[in-house]
Amino acid sequence: MSRTVVISGGGTGIGLAAARTFAEDGNRIVLIGRRPEVLERAAAGINGAVGCPADLSDPEQAERAARFVCEEFGAVDVLINSAGGNGGLEPGPEHPDGALTGTAHDWTVNFRLNTLTAVLLTEALFDHLASPGGRLLFLGSIAARRGSGSGAYAASKAALHPYAFDLARRLGPRGITVNVVAPGYIEDTDFFGDGLPEERRRALAEETLIGRAGVPGDVAATLHWLASHAAGHITSQVIHVNGGAERGN
């Protein structure tokens, strides 16, 4: 049976791979993201997909996106919060004032990109998640366990864990599962901007136990399974997709 699948950050990378995977089942796909041209191009290449441009860190735009979804499709069967990214690629403060200005910007922009986008869209669609059988999924990161250098990105992803656990308790009685998928190093995404030096890329791949970097399809397949009937008794979990580079517990 066709389901409505909403994917934030669905225009590129893992979100786009997930959209293609879910579309293969004949599902209705709604892609949400900040860049209209990227969404239009992505939706054009996926049967049954529509794009909804919105900056999900803005409450009014998140509400507008949720209203569009509900008016066009009704209940949401699967919500995948994939929007986010590397805050270090965002423009810095125009007029740095003091040593802490850059630090405040780094932490603020990472939480806006990776935490607030997921929280606002989830809360806007909370009452419209299909009951029973709905699936709520968040994209975390290996960095939530091991850090990310500055700490800001890692902390913004780690913040999704307790939020997801609380949601699992609230939504469990409605028959809705809530899980986090935490990828390791994934190639073919925009996360590193212009890319990594070959030496660094090789080192990250060699950290895995299987000797290769992940690809968006690895994560998309995990999201697809967690959204399936077969995973109906799995909730409030962090599922690691990193080739063994970091052990889960």
Description:
Helix 1 (13-23) packs across helix 9 and helix 3 (59-73) runs parallel beside helix 4. With 249 residues, the chain is of the alpha/beta class. It has a 7-stranded parallel β-sheet, with helices on both faces. The chain is built from 9 helices and 7 strands; from the N terminus they run E-H-E-H-E-H-E-H-E-H-H-H-E-H-H-E. The radius of gyration is 17 Å and the shape is globular. It has helices at 13-23, 36-44, 59-73, 101-125, 143-146, 152-158, 160-171, 198-207, 216-226, and strands at 4-8, 28-33, 49-53, 78-81, 135-139, 177-183, 237-241. It has a single domain, classed as Rossmann fold, CATH 3.40.50.720. The model has no long low-confidence stretch (mean pLDDT 93).
Give descriptors for this structure.
globular, Rossmann fold, 249 residues, seven-stranded parallel β-sheet, NAD(P)-bd_dom_sf, 42% helix, KR_dom, 9 helices, alpha/beta
Which SSEs are present, and which pair or pack?
Blueprint: E1 4-8, H1 13-23, E2 28-33, H2 36-44, E3 49-53, H3 59-73, E4 78-81, H4 101-125, E5 135-139, H5 143-146, H6 152-158, H7 160-171, E6 177-183, H8 198-207, H9 216-226, E7 237-241
Parallel strand pairs: 1-2, 1-4, 2-3, 4-5, 5-6, 6-7
InterPro entries: KR_dom (IPR057326), NAD(P)-bd_dom_sf (IPR036291), SDR_fam (IPR002347)
Family: Belongs to the short-chain dehydrogenases/reductases (SDR) family.
Pfam family, one: adh_short_C2
In short:
This protein is of the alpha/beta class and 249 residues long. It is built from 9 helices and 7 strands, in the order βαβαβαβαβαααβααβ. A 7-stranded parallel beta sheet has the order 3-2-1-4-5-6-7, with helices on both faces.
